[in-house]
Design brief:
2 domains; 14 helices; single chain; Alkaline Phosphatase, subunit A; about 550 residues; nine-stranded mixed sheet
Length: about 550
């Protein structure tokens, strides 16, 4: 398509002046404004950084993500704000730590009073869409497991008339009307996929019933193709779905993203699209050929799986549960796995990742076909990682090994081009200010992240000296006799983790011990390092204290 650059004078109210905006006239004769970039954010759910080919994995096939990294910028040390869906997704949208935005654990909805960077993009004239997994509100009816004794009610209330049931799975499953608050945290266009695997709710399930009513008898473990050879299937953590690849939730999310891109091509407004896949995640149900694309027998286990070094108390507790024959129930709690189970999980996880990569390729192909690629910044990241056999563990828990808290981050900007991979310490909260700055939108008070544009443009090599990861649970866990709460500090060399109610902690030298096998917490020769890092963690916690709202006056 031939494109001719022209200029259009436009009044900008915020600066009270006329500005020349570059525009492009394509072969369809439509004028497309490209002064402000478009954004297409791909996010997966539970994907480690080292489960992408561009990050050094030589087994999993991710050609489209690898190509994206080859033409963009890749961050090697991108960490979560919290290794849980709801807290970290709220941090991504607000640029704030969980203790600031209030979503400390899964099951606490992001307050409707919260400002997100998507709100600001929308106010600035962007078309905004979220397609797939959101998980900003509660999706289950499970009651909270912990409440301080002798209390009633909560310390704060939300504004009257606010609904927090847009993602509430039981309502969707019962086909009841769901109250709609628009925009949804800044998103004008929302299509939900709620939960994981093939048996999900939301707009996807409505579409499936309407267009493929026979498929209702294909989803779920009770309708799966029998796989007696798969140990994880016996635990309820995997099943071979009968749902065809082309109508599996991952493909549907890509289809609807393509639909929205086609609408954007007919509009002059810039856009921000969050294309959000609920896979890879347990239960592992990659469809069709992706189920046995990778064989457990061919999978290598992490070096930490067979280490003879002493394990920290909470890992020993998980191993003791397994060794005592206590079979984990199907759910989300981490458990100690056998070699076979770990290999199965990695192989099936790779299948899901390759399926997602293929769908990302379809979306990017359509982006190019619509001639939107030269004005669109493409971002790829994940919600958090997974143990995937690290220290014989599967799933996730408040155990901050690198496989859980370190995620991929790829930023492909057509105006910047390829940059060398960065080793700078960055975090989920940095995405909001980075996107706002690149869009030319002023951020709000209370954002705690820092823009990564200097790193992306090659104007710097570091963003900060350390990052903090927050983690809280509704329950006692891992043999710790208290509601589990912890904080982690990661520096260029070390990782320090402290647990509320425990007299022990974790300290690892990531340079000498990248597998985090040797816990240095009790070693006298590292006492000074431990004290220095503990002080650093205290300062990070102080820096995370909210500064919003500002006072309206001095009393």
């Amino acid at each position: 398509m031939r494109r001719v650059q022209v200029f259009n004078r436009r009044w900008v109210a915020s600066s009270a002046e006329w500005v020349d905006h570059a525009a492009c006239v394509g072969g369809n004769g439509k004028m497309q404004m490209n002064k402000r970039p478009n954004f297409l954010l791909f996010i997966t759910d539970q994907q480690r950084a080292d489960h992408v080919g561009a990050y050094g994995n030589r087994v999993v096939s991710t050609p489209h993500l690898d190509a994206l990294a080859a033409r963009g910028w890749r961050n090697e040390r991108f960490y979560v704000a919290a290794p849980l869906c709801m807290p970290n997704r709220a941090s991504l949208l607000t640029g704030r730590m969980p203790t600031a935005h209030g979503v400390r654990v899964n099951g606490v909805s992001l307050s409707a009073q919260s400002v997100t960077f998507v709100d600001l993009l929308r106010d600035a004239g962007y078309g905004t869409a979220l397609i797939g997994k959101a998980h900003l509100q509660n999706i289950t009816d499970l009651p909270a497991a912990w409440r301080a004794s002798g209390t009633v009610g909560e310390a704060r209330r939300d504004c009257p008339g606010t609904h927090y049931e847009r993602e509430f799975g039981p309502l969707w499953r019962r086909r009841q009307a769901v109250a709609k608050d628009e925009p949804y945290y800044g998103f004008d266009h929302v299509l939900f996929v709620i939960n994981h695997g093939d048996d999900v709710d939301g707009h996807y399930r409505e579409w499936l019933r309407r267009h493929h009513p026979e498929a209702e008898s294909l989803v779920g473990s009770e309708h799966a193709i029998p796989t007696p050879e798969i140990e994880l299937a016996q635990l309820g953590q995997a099943w071979r779905t009968r749902l065809p690849e082309e109508i599996y939730p991952t493909a549907w999310i890509a289809d609807r993203t393509i639909d929205f891109l086609q609408q954007c091509a007919e509009d002059e407004k810039p856009f921000f699209i969050q294309c959000s896949f609920p896979d890879p995640h347990h239960p592992f149900t990659p469809p069709g050929r992706y189920w046995d694309m990778y064989r457990p027998e061919d999978i290598s286990l992490p070096e930490s799986f067979h280490t003879s070094a002493p394990r920290p108390p909470h890992v020993r507790w998980l191993h003791a549960q397994r060794d005592a024959g206590k079979v984990p129930k199907a759910g989300h709690a981490a458990f100690a796995a056998t070699e076979r189970q770990a290999r199965e999980a990695i192989a099936l996880n790779y299948g899901s990742i390759t399926h997602i990569d293929a769908q990302i390729g379809r979306v990017l192909s359509e982006l190019a076909r619509l001639d939107l690629d030269r004005d669109t910044i493409v971002i790829f990241t994940s919600d958090h990682g997974e143990f995937m056999g690290d220290h014989q563990l599967l799933l996730k828990a408040p155990l901050h090994y690198q496989g859980l808290i370190r995620c991929p981050l790829i930023w492909a900007d057509p105006q910047v081009g390829h940059r060398e991979a960065s080793q700078a310490l960055t975090q989920t909260i940095d995405l909001a200010p980075t996107i706002l700055e690149r869009a030319g939108v002023t951020p709000y008070n209370g954002i705690q992240g820092s823009s990564l544009l200097p790193l992306i443009r090659g104007d710097g090599s570091r963003a900060r000296d350390a990052i903090m990861v927050e983690d809280e649970s509704q329950r006692t866990a891992l043999g710790i006799d208290a509601r589990l709460r912890m904080r982690t500090l990661v520096t260029e060399r070390y990782r320090l983790s402290i647990y509320d109610g425990a007299q022990w902690g974790e300290l690892y030298d990531l340079r000498e011990d990248p597998g985090e096998v040797i816990n240095l917490w009790e070693r006298q020769e590292y006492a000074a390092v431990r004290h220095e890092l503990t002080e650093g963690l205290m300062r990070q916690m102080l820096a995370a204290v909210d500064t919003s709202p500002l006072p309206t006056s001095v009393a």
